[in-house]
Structure formats: structure tokens, C-alpha cells
């Protein structure tokens, strides 16, 4: 039922890698074989020194950041992602400053409840963001 195979076809049946032909190089290995071999065959002591240097430099960067900057970054991360996106798109600084003045005065007076009547939904979103920044509970 099967026609006769010639020598090349028979060789092809029994010569796929790993038995016959060499395995073709991967594209990653063909890019720059010398550099790849340096990476694969690195000395363990050099590797340890390199990793230690990276860890030391990252710890130095962490130390350089002062406490005020960290407090601001932590406060910024408390703000909801939708509010942060709204602030990035449209930043009405005078409105935000006005909200901050009211909220900081409220914090200094240490009152129980601050009521602000804001009808515009976008401004309410910004007001909630400012409250989240100062770690205050806000309810609409």
C-alpha cells in the first residue's frame, strides 16, 4: 500500500534529533555565542560578588529616601487608583488647595465631623481623594 521510499526518505525517518542530525541552535544562542557562554560559565565567586554589589546599591538607595518623602508616598498610595488617574488627567490645583486648607484646619481643630456640600461628582471624587491622602474617613 505504501510506495517504495528512496534512501533520503528512509534516512529522514530515522535521523531526527537526538539520534542523527545535530540539534539546531536556538535563536538566543545564535545571537552572540561568546556572550552567552560567558553568562553560562560565570565563576561562582564572581557571581556572588556581583549579586552582593547589586544588593548593597539597592539598600543605599533605600536609605537615601528621607522620612518625609516616604510619608508622602505612603499617603499617595492610600488614594484610590481612579482618583489618582483623575488627578493625573485634570489637576485643578486651586480646588485641591481649597480642599486641603479646609481639611487641615479641621485636623488642627480636631473636630468630630466636617460637612462639605459638594454637588459635582468630579469634585466629590477629588475631595474623597484628599481625605484618603490625609487618612480620613469620607462618606458621600
From TrEMBL:
Residues 1-89 form the R3H-associated N-terminal domain. It holds the Pfam family R3H-assoc. GO terms for molecular function: nucleic acid binding. It comes from the Eukaryota. This is R3H-associated N-terminal domain-containing protein. The lineage of its organism: Eukaryota, Viridiplantae, Streptophyta, Embryophyta, Tracheophyta.
Amino acid at each position: 500500500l505504501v510506495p517504495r521510499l528512496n534512501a533520503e526518505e528512509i534516512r529522514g525517518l530515522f535521523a531526527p534529533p537526538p539520534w542523527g542530525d545535530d540539534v539546531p541552535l536556538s535563536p538566543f544562542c545564535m545571537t552572540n555565542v561568546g556572550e552567552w557562554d560567558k553568562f553560562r560559565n560565570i565563576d561562582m565567586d564572581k557571581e556572588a560578588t556581583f549579586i552582593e554589589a547589586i544588593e548593597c546599591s539597592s539598600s543605599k538607595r533605600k536609605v537615601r529616601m528621607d522620612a518625609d518623602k516616604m510619608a508622602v508616598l505612603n499617603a499617595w498610595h492610600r488614594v484610590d487608583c481612579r482618583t489618582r488617574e483623575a488627578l493625573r488627567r485634570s489637576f485643578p490645583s486651586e480646588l485641591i488647595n481649597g480642599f486641603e486648607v479646609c481639611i487641615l484646619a479641621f485636623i488642627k481643630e480636631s473636630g468630630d465631623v466636617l460637612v462639605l456640600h459638594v454637588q459635582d461628582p468630579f469634585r466629590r471624587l477629588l475631595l474623597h481623594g484628599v481625605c484618603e491622602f490625609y487618612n480620613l474617613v469620607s462618606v458621600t
